[in-house]
Amino acid sequence: MKLTPRMVLSHVAVAVIALLAFYLVISLAVPALFDRGVAHGTPTGRGPGQGLRAVVSAAVTQAALLGGGIAAAAAVALGWFFSWRLVRPITQIRDATRRLSAGDYSVQVPLPPVQELADLAADVNSMGERLAQTERTRVQLIGDVAHEMRTPLTVIDGYVEGMIDGVIEVTPETLGELGTETRRLRRLAEDFSSLSRAEERRFDLRAEPVDLADLVIGAAERLRPQTEEKDVTLTVEVPPLPVVADPDRILQVVTNLVGNAIAATPSGGWIRVSGRREGDRALVDVADSGVGIAPGDVERVFERFFRAHPGRAGGSGIGLTISRELARAHGGDLAARSPGEGQGATFTLSLPLAP
User: Fold this and answer.
1) For the stretch 143-175, what's the b/e string if a residue is b when 16 or more beta carbons lie within 10 angstroms of its beta carbon?
2) How far apart are CA 306 and CA 288, in angstroms?
């Protein structure tokens, strides 16, 4: 039962039981008190009528005081019981939030029978699970950053020590190797910076009226040499789709989607880039016949550093995270779907059509 009717019924129950107790005490006590008053006789100096009136008045007054006291005691007891039933789950939720704030994300609040409190407890449990996932992601982030930085730093350190010891000759080739690794570190730092801006929604968007088809076709055609080198068939069919967007940012999103499709598609496969209108939205689909995504990983591919296929070579693992945040910063979204592993995948970019 929901909280409002439960509170109303509890107050009604307290009032009814108090009135019932009052009525029973009055009905039982008044005759007994009246008989006792009559047995003691009529008060001195008063007539029979006045004496009887005094006896009745005294009996009713005493019975009312007794009944009121018992009714008040019953109301207090019942009120305390109903309050305890209400406060106990609130106390459990409060204790759970304190444990969550202290870093104990394993806490689970039992669901109370009151619907609103059950919803609140479920939200607290869900928050605890998300915080636990965030903590695991944070720990994983530290490990991923260390892993990504370890290789180029090891290479740089090895070359520098070799040059100092005279084992490695300082030549344009060796300096080029050092430059490659430093550029890798710089690219990694830029990815982390982009990720930070993406998660904080601190994008410097320069929106202007553009044709989404021009951006999509341009991005796909720039990557066509890679598909030809890999023997992957690339088809692009996008009708005019007027939008108001930052061309550079949308180009970044589409380039990332097509680049991921190329990396996921084996030789002899295909990639289709298509566009369409759906209501007031412009949709762009990037579909491939590649490695696909497991059903449980379709949404997780947008998590930072998550790789659906860890063994496959790829970037830093945050491209889709940034792409989705860029799409949402434009008032759109980025979604994925896949029949399963080995059956390809489709990523859909949606943006509001220009008025």
Assistant:
1) ebeeebeeebeebbeebeeebeeeeeeeeeeee
2) 20
pLDDT score of 307 more than 70: no
Going by the DSSP 8-state scheme, the letter that residue 210 receives in this structure is E
Q: How far, CA to CA in Å, does 299 sit from each of 293, 294, 304, 337?
A: 10, 10, 11, 9
Q: Which of 321, 316, 347 is nearest to 149 (CA)?
A: 316
pLDDT number for residue 341: 86
* Structure-token match 């550079």, residue found: 248
pLDDT tens for 132-187 read 887 887 777 777 777 777 878 888 888 888 888 888 888 888 888 888 888 878 87
Residue 288 · residue 269 · CB < 8 Å: yes
Pairing of strands 345-352, 333-337: antiparallel
* Segment 230-238 mean pLDDT: 93
Q: Which fold has domain 132-199?
A: Helix Hairpins (1.10.287)
pTM above 0.85, yes or no: no
Residues 273, 342 contacting (CB under 8 angstroms)? no
Q: Could you read off the pLDDT of 15-41 as tens digits, one per residue?
A: 777 777 777 777 776 677 667 766 665
pLDDT tens-digit readout, 186-209:
877 777 777 666 666 666 778 899
- Distance separating alpha carbons of residues 338 and 287, to the nearest angstrom: 9
Alpha helix stretches (DSSP H) within the chain: 3-39, 48-101, 115-165, 172-199, 212-222, 224-230, 247-264, 319-329
Long-range contacts formed by 97-100: CB under 8 A, 24+ apart: 97/124, 100/124, 100/127, 100/128, 100/131
Report residue 147 as tokens: 């892993």
Going by their DSSP bridges, the two strands 242-245 and 233-237 should be labelled as unpaired
Residue 17 contacts residue 23 (beta carbons within 8 Å)? no
User: CATH: 3.90.380.10, 3.30.750.80, 3.30.565.10, 1.10.443.10. Which one for 208-352?
Assistant: 3.30.565.10
